[in-house]
Amino acid sequence: MSREITTKADNDIFFHTDYYYTAGLHFDYRRLVETNTKLHQFAAGANDSSRLLINYKMGSKIFNSRSIFYKEIATMDRPYAAWTYAGLDMTRFRSATKGIRLGMELGIVGEITGLGQLQRWWHRQTHFLVPKGWGAQIRNELVVNLNLNVLRSVQLGNSIDLVSHTAIYGGTGLNRISHDVTFRFLRFKPISLSYFTNSFLSWNKLSQKKDKEFFLFAGGGVDYTLSNIFIEGSLFQVNSSPFTVNAKTWMMRYSLGLMYSQNRSSLSATVYHLSKEITNGISHNYASLTFAYRF
Fold first, then answer.
1. 13-17, 48-52, 223-227, range with the lowest pLDDT
2. 3-state secondary structure of 123
3. 85 near 104, Cβ under 8 Å?
4. Each residue of 217-242: pLDDT tens digit?
5. What value does the mean pLDDT take over residues 93-120?
6. Cβ-defined contacts of 50-53 (< 8 Å, 24+)
7. φ, ψ for residue 45, nearest 5 deg
8. Mind listing the domains of the chain with CATH numbers?
9. Would you say 172 and 229 are in contact if contact means Cβ atoms under 8 Å apart?
10. What is the pTM of this model?
11. Which positions ≥6 away from 40 have C-beta within 8 Å?
C-alpha cells in the first residue's frame, strides 16, 4: 500500500467549549515516490535511496472570540476568522531517524470562505447558541504560506523514543518558529515508516500486512510568533480588519494521545492544550480524531 487518504477533524466540543480554534476539517492524499522517477531524482538526487513522500491537502479552520453571544467589538477578546486552504508538501527521509519536509499552502481568509455562514447554520440546526460576531471577522485576503519542518528521533529504550520536530512558517498568513519534543511509548516504528509522521506506506504489501503500531505519546512545544493573520489581521494596512488584537510572541503547546495502525488503516486521537495566544485571553483545549486508509 503506497497510497493513503486521511481525514482529520478538530473540535473543542469535547471540552464543552466553543471558542478560539473551535473547529477544523482536513483531507490529505499522499503517496510514496518511486526512486527511478524524475521527481525523486529532482528532490533527492540521482542514485539516492531516500524515502520520498508527496502529500496533497485541503482543509478549513474556524476561530471565534471567547464570548460568542454578543456582536459588539467591545465584548471580544480576539477576532473571528475563517480559513480555507489547499496545499502541497514533500517529505524526505534520509534515514530511519531523520527527515525533512517542505510545504506550501494557498488559501483564502474571510467572509468569502463561507465558513461563518456555515457555522451559524450548523448551530441553528443543532440548537446551539449562534455566534454573533462574524460581522467583524478578519477581512477577505488571499494567503500564501511556506513551511520547513525538520524531524529527528532518538531511541531511549526498547519501548520508548524521543521525536524532535522543528518548524519554520513564513508568508502572508503566519510567520512563526516552532519546536516540539514528543515521547512515544509501547510499540512504534521508526519515524521514516510510522503513522506518527504520516509515513506508514510501503511498496511491500506482504511485509506491511504484518506491520502494526500501537503507541501512546506525550509531548510539548513552544511557538515564537512574529505575525498571525487570524488574530492580528493582514500584514497590509490597506486591508485592515474592523477588529484585531496582538498575538502573544511566545506560546506553549502540549499534546497527549494514542495511535493504532495495521495493514490498510490507522486511527489516532489527540488532546491539545494551548497556553494564551493573546494577552487578555485564556488557555484552550481541543481534540483531534484522525482516520487513514491505504491502498
1. 48-52
2. helix
3. no
4. 999 999 999 999 999 999 998 899 99
5. 95
6. 50/92, 50/93, 50/94, 51/92, 51/93, 51/192, 51/193, 51/199, 52/90, 52/91, 52/92, 52/93, 53/90, 53/91, 53/198, 53/199, 53/201
7. 100, 155
8. 3-294 (2.40.128.140)
9. yes
10. 0.90
11. 33, 34, 48, 52
